Amino acid sequence: MYLKRLELKGFKSFPTKTDVLFNEGITAIVGPNGSGKSNISDAVRWVLGEQSIKSLRGDKLEDVVFAGTDTKKAMNYCEVALTIDNSDKKLDLEYSEITIKRRAYRSGESEFFLNNKSCRLKDIKELLLDTGIGKDGYSIIEQGKVDEILSNNPVNRRKVFDEACNISKYRYKKQESERNLKHTKENLSRIEDIYIEIENQLKPLEGQQKKAIKYLELKDKLKVLEVNSYINEIEELNRQVEESLKHDKLLDEQSNDLKKQKETLEETLAKTSEEAEGIESKINKTIEYTNTIKGVINKKYSELSVLKEKIINSDSDIKRYNEEIANTNEKLKNNKLELDELEKKKEEVFDNLSCMKKQINEVDVKNKNKKSSISELAENVENLKDEIITLLDLKQNSANKLSTFTANIENIEKRTETINLDAEIVKKNIESKKNEIKSHQLNKEEKIKFIEELRLRHENINKNIDMLKSNSKNIDNNIQVSKLKLNEYKSKLNIYIDMEKHYEGFNRGVKEVLKNKSLTGIYGALGQVISSSQEYEKALEASLGSYMQNIITKDENSAKTAINYLKKNNLGRVTFLPLNIIKSNKIDKKMIKSTTNYIGIASDLVKVDEKYKNIIENILGRTIVIKNMDEAIKFARETNHRYKVVTLDGEILNPGGSLTGGTIRTNGNILSRKRLIEEFEEKLVVEKSELESLENKKLDLSNDINEEVKKLEIVDLELSENDKSLVYINTTIKSLNDEVLNLENSLQKLINEKIGLGENLEYTLNKAKSLKEEIKDLEEKHLNNKVKINQLNVQLKEFNNVYEVEKNKFDDLNIEYARLNQAYESILKDIERIAKESELQESTLKNIEKQLEEGKLNKVKIEEQIKIETSEKENLENQLIDENKKLALQKEQKESIKSKSDSILSDLKNIDRKYIEVKESLFKIESKIDRVKSAKENYIAKLSEEYELTLEEAENLKDEFIIIDKKELESLKRELKGLGNVNLDSIKEYEEIKERYDFYSEQKKDLEESIEVIYKLIQELEENMKKEFNEKFTLINENFKFVYKKLFGGGNGELKIVDKANILDSDIEIVAQPPGKKMKNLNLLSGGEKALTAISILFAILLAKPTPFCILDEIEAPLDDANIYRFGEFLKELSKETQFISITHRRGTMEVADYIYGVTMQEKAISKVISLKLQEAKELTEDII
């Protein structure tokens, strides 16, 4: 068996389909760094089931799919197919060739194929067990694997030795057996729960069955005696009814006579009452009339009081009007005085205005004359200025010529100066450019340093990504634990739901009624509709007892229908609780609040729908829950044993003083079952939330990893940018050197130009001297004219000053005139205002005088009205005296009629008393009849309820020869009562439960036997593993000692089992002592020594158990040439049994190869595999080295 072919398509750097054919022997795969040769070993590991993308040098599954380049688009999927030659049938499949294929999509999906048929990874692992082939085996060894073998992590090292020692398949089977054992135990646990539940039902049912049989025997005997007793009692009651009916008839006749006498007296009393009502009506009318008169008189008194008040108000108004008239006359007088004063002021101001107007006109004439003289002087000044302008033009022409020559001189001097400055600037530029070159050299060094820092950051980010991925893996483990818990909770929840669904714990009759959905008005068993906190469950179960089995119905009709159904199908007996009949029967909390140590009334500790409240309070409303027995006894004493008391452990103190206690057998967990379902549902919700939280954390970590990857991309981008920047700096330095050369050429040109400018300067200086003398003569003439202009300007200034003084005086007069004019206008307005006020006051005075006259007339009218009202009041008072006399006479008549009526009422009272006495006697007789009939009906009801017999059926059963012995009856009843609650359905229920008990006993036994078998299988597997491991490990250890000495050229190597008592899980210690050195800790070995030690272990394993093929990925890279030679020689020896594919760049390895493949990257990011001849391989080797 060997690796025949490897096909890659879209995997990493192999976008196009690539076939690599392998032969037996040694095949070397060579190529430059980064060409993608290690992607071949990655492909083999990946197709064999490697799940860690990190170990394949990626971050996520899509990283193994070709990502695309600038010229080639990305692939959507990748696939790798590995074909194994199975001619020797080492693999347990009837094929000479076996192809394992794996395909992955960019979306994250992955699938496996075996000979092009879809399969599971598990199938591939099982196929390759104990062949050494696989991701955890020793068929693929890279530098990381070397580190794992020599690392302090015992798990990774152990996997390699397990595969080499042929115990991987045993360990796999053991793990499978342990998983089966776990599942079987879980199934057993569920079966045991049901088994215990059924067992708990069966034991009490067995006792109930025996009790029920005895009960039926006693019941039949009692029926015969009791039915005959009831018939005798009914006959006696019939006789009593006949006697009572005769007495009832006699009393009824007496009652009728008294009734007639009463009717006669009642007619007489009615006539007397009519007379009394007539007199009473007249009295009421008289009283009503007198009250009306009194009301009118009182009204007259009120009206007179109002009129007198009006007289007072009228006098007050007249007085006020007189005062207002006096005040208004005073105001008119004051206004007249003020008006006279304002008229005088008006005349004075008007005279001042006229005088000032005259002064303003005189000043204006003087100012106009002064302005004429000023204009004449200004004209003389302007003429002199024109002459000066002419002289200035002549001077300007000469100055312009001088300016031209002077400008030339300046230009020559400036150009010379510019040349000097430019020369300086060029020199400075040369110096600056040289400094800039130095600066860029420093920047270049800093840039190189920064690139190194970026590379360090790149490495740190990679470490962060590794750490985050490790955290993500831990969360994955937690997610698996959470999922296991979810499965456990779901399993238990399903068990309790199944028990609830099948009404576990309920009697047969209850179950049948609850199952029959055609019965209407059935709300469920009492135990189904209630729930409670766990701490109260025992107390409530003890309190309720058999009530838990009672069924709640809408009404008695629904209960009756259900009972008929039970009777018809012989399904047993059930107690029903009709909602419309049962009423609340609850203790008043006030009666027990003063007592101590009680927890509460049992009905208050139950959670139940409001519509069932009355039923709960009827059953539990008079039961008190106390913490423990001692406190319960104390409470019962305090309350004189009036109430039923129950403890939290289920002990009961009954009313009257009896106690019930001991062990409680749960009745199918009816009460706690609902709570357990709710608890497990809550646990499911919490665990689902926890799982969701973990998955969110996983998502957050994925996001963090993505962020770190983005940072890595940014650093990569910065590295790229800085590499470009470094290239730019080098280009800039070269450019600056070119600029320095150009600047030096420019400096020489400026020196040559400066020499030519010196010769032109001398001619221009002589011409400028003659022009300066001409300009001097013109300036003297210009100066004389300026003196004359100054003299005229002084005279002009004096005239202007005088003019300004007169002008200011003119302005002041105008301002004063405006002020006086404003005061005059103000006086006119005040005169107008006072005139209007006086006019208004005169109008007001006329109105007040008019109101005064009206007030006097109104007073006279009121005084006349007072006289009229007083006369009417006196007439009404006389009329009131007459009506009071009439009322006294009517009251005397009323008293006479009342005396007559009282006499009749007295006679009626005597008759009523006699009538009541007769009626009471009659009622007693009728009550006796009712009691007798009720007693008879009770006996008939008892016959119906207890024996389901009608009266006629019972009479047919009467035996005249049976002597009723009441003591025997009481003895039978006591014996029946002593049996307590009897479950007649228990006979059939016991048979049904026994059948289920036998079934689950068998199931339980089968599972226990299965567990025993699995334990034995695990034990056998462990024994086989120990035996196989000991044999193989001893052989590998001997091989290691031999190989170590051969590869190292001496020294000692040994493998030791650390914990010999637990060899299957023990760490394996590697002892290495290179030649000429002391024994060393593995961590203290050099890189080459470590590599050679790991290679020695690998070769030792291959000698003990050769794998069909082995891929070596640069594991010999750290070895020196001497060790490479020994490595190559040993590899050649081992290739007789094992096919080797070595990814290498070492000449010594290539030299021992039978076949060589080259991997190149002719196009960026795209690898290509080529077959090489020996000479080409040598040349490629030289290039790599």
Automatic annotation (TrEMBL):
Coiled-coil boundaries: 167-201, 227-478, 677-893, 990-1038
Q: Name one GO biological process term.
A: DNA replication
Record's superkingdom?
A: Bacteria
**Membrane-spanning residues:** none
Q: Name the InterPro entries for this protein.
A: P-loop_NTPase, RecF/RecN/SMC_N, SMC, SMC_hinge, SMC_hinge_sf, SMC_prok
Q: Where is the SMC hinge domain?
A: 520-636
Cellular localisation: Cytoplasm
Any one Gene Ontology MF annotation carried by this entry is:
DNA binding
Q: What residues bind ATP, as annotated?
A: P32, N33, G34, S35, G36, K37, S38, N39
Q: Which is a Pfam family this sequence falls into?
A: SMC_hinge
Q: What's a single GO CC term here?
A: chromosome
Per UniProt, which keywords does this protein have? ATP-binding, Coiled coil, Cytoplasm, DNA-binding, Nucleotide-binding
Gene3D superfamilies per the record? 1.20.1060.20, 3.30.70.1620, P-loop containing nucleotide triphosphate hydrolases
Kindly give the HAMAP family that the UniProt entry links to this protein.
Answer: Smc_prok
- Notes concerning its domains: Contains large globular domains required for ATP hydrolysis at each terminus and a third globular domain forming a flexible hinge near the middle of the molecule. These domains are separated by coiled-coil structures.
The record's similarity note reads: Belongs to the SMC family.
Q: How does it assemble?
A: Homodimer.
Listed NCBIfam families: SMC_prok_B
Q: What functional role does this protein have?
A: Required for chromosome condensation and partitioning.
Protein name as catalogued: Chromosome partition protein Smc
Please give the organism: Paraclostridium sordellii (Clostridium sordellii)
Report which gene this protein is encoded by: smc
